[in-house]
TrEMBL record:
Superkingdom of source: Bacteria
Protein name: Antitoxin
Protein family membership: Belongs to the phD/YefM antitoxin family.
Transmembrane segments: none
Purpose: Antitoxin component of a type II toxin-antitoxin (TA) system.
NCBIfam families, per the entry: phd_fam
Lineage summary: Bacteria, Bacillati, Cyanobacteriota, Cyanophyceae, Nostocales
Amino acid sequence: MKSISKSKLKSKLLEFLRLVESEGEEIIVTDRGKPVVKISKYGNSPSTEQLFGQMRGKVKYFEDLTTPTTEEWGEL
């Protein structure tokens, strides 16, 4: 992971964006030595099907999930 100051990034932004895009390198942008921004390649979030598809048909429950739980927890 590379680190660069805001002032240096300004003149070389396109170069660093190409580095992130082509190599997936993450860049930390600093202001007076403190990290303020992380530049990373955009990644698509996996769909629900991709995350939980293997579990389809394997999860079992033995009660009605829509019944209130006031008896169990008491009234507030």
